[in-house]
């Protein structure tokens, strides 16, 4: 993409306005906290102290709107406390330019490096540095600076207290995350009916996992229906894919395929009903046709082999979903369902429990491993089935989220890990530091009197990637220009008093809280009005604030954009590395799955789960890098777009084959497959070697995997799952090599090596 096209795209993205669900009660709560802090400060102190405390309360409220699963009161307290410390230290050093520049450089560098700990930490740190540049100009003595710092902390305390007193559907984000995961599984089941190889985006599952990480206090107060369903959704996905896939499941056409389509439709209906129940906190409503499909007793006779095992496991998992989504047993029929539907829902629960606890050997297939949770011999008809250990052990009840104190060393390790020359986060920290210092010096030399606007604008718009930095710079200038002129017009027409200015500032803040997620330009419009009214409350004339705000904001935006052009961290040249990282993680996941056939440990093995999560994270990092690189004004020096798409499809097929095999992992104590151990070792070593080849622009080779499969004599292989799954893994790896061969950069590298030889 050329520079002109890239600038046009970022400008359009900066001014884009999105339709988002608004949170008026949360916006009102933040505005009330801000109004309370300003009112107390005006009553007890001066307008200058009120302006300083208002920034603390304002920033604390913004922190609570960040995308974080950590308890919101903690975010408000941390924001208020860090801003208070920054204000006090900044004022102490402000009278000595060299000392203040050293402090500003340190604060700016740490704020840029804090993006390694996550976007929430990065946004809060950048905002604190920017607001500190304003608040240090308000006190006139050390005692006043301490008072202003205390009022910033007071603003954070007020916002935290309001969050505790008025939580406003505190568990709604967690409910939405879990419901989105279940709804995504339902949509996946529907698409599998028509496309057995349909793709699945794991982002809802990853989001639900993040939401499931709770502090001990949150765990004690968590609604019952939020416990366990996320783990069930994780285990249902491979079972759905395995049931639908013709290679390992039912044939592509025929009676078995028709029954599979019916089961997939019923599973989608149950998952959708569970998603609605979790999202709304209402009883589970199941429709009669889906209940009847799951209750049909001849499924085990229609389906055979791996498809039968997958169907039984799916029935057991759906029963667990019903139990989890409706722990009180309040399930009802759909409005148009007959009265017997509720009883049938209870029957589904009982049938699912029996499918998990009662083992039956499928007749006619002596080498077929028993179905999940089945007895080796059926009990006599007049005896109840003997209970055994369930085949699907429940997932851990809670994923613990570390507290703030224990999080400090984790953040420190993340930031220290980015102190390397090729780190994009380190380059961002260096850019932020240089721009903050240069912007402050330029603002100081200009005859405006409020030089902090230039570094403030630069720090607030800068992000580690190109697109967001440029789009935010354009949006900030446009929003600032419109907001400043609108607020100035109001000041000229009304000439408000101190209290009226404070009220107008609170109104602007409330509108900003309400609309901040619709677009950066929209939020900056109201932020500019908030600052104009707040400084007017403190005695600033509009003739002072308007020209300097517009000109210095433009300077800050230009500095931010120029810094990225001069010292970039382009994603395009690193695409090969991202792809190699994904291949390595996918290879570990496949190796863990295959190795479980050699050493059966049950379908709930934590090593497989850990490898799967690492592969998902690597896949997400690849997709994000690909999206960022698509809008960079850089000539491709890594993978061509076609080769990147082909390689992504190949590694996705490789991961999918491993997932299909995961759906049929043998129970603990089952007959092992000795040859799987050699294949697992070959997958692990060759994918690591192949990743190095991709980084060095060489075509990966998979001779060790071919040798492992060629030496496979089939002894101990119970059915087609292991053999066909292994063949699918090798075919996907060969597609990776084909994609690399088609890339021009790999061809150039081969030509250079051939010339050198």
UniProtKB/TrEMBL annotation:
Protein's UniProt keywords contain Membrane = yes
Question: Where does this protein have compositionally biased stretches of type Low complexity?
Answer: 332-345
Where does the record place the region Disordered? 327-396, 737-757
Q: Where is the Integral membrane bound transporter domain?
A: 439-561
Q: What are the entry keywords?
A: Cell membrane, Membrane, Transmembrane, Transmembrane helix
Instruction: Give every Integral membrane protein YccS N-terminal domain span.
Output: 82-189
Top-level taxonomic group? Bacteria
Question: Chief location of this protein?
Answer: membrane
Location within or outside the cell: Cell membrane
How does this protein lie in the membrane?
Multi-pass membrane protein
Comp. bias regions, Pro residues? 366-396
- Span-the-membrane segments of this chain are 32-55, 75-92, 98-116, 123-143, 149-168, 429-453, 473-491, 498-515, 521-538, 550-570
Question: What PANTHER family does the entry give?
Answer: INNER MEMBRANE PROTEIN YCCS, P-HYDROXYBENZOIC ACID EFFLUX PUMP SUBUNIT-RELATED
Tell me the protein family, please.
Belongs to the YccS/YhfK family.
Protein known as: FUSC family protein
Q: Which organism is it from?
A: Streptomyces koyangensis
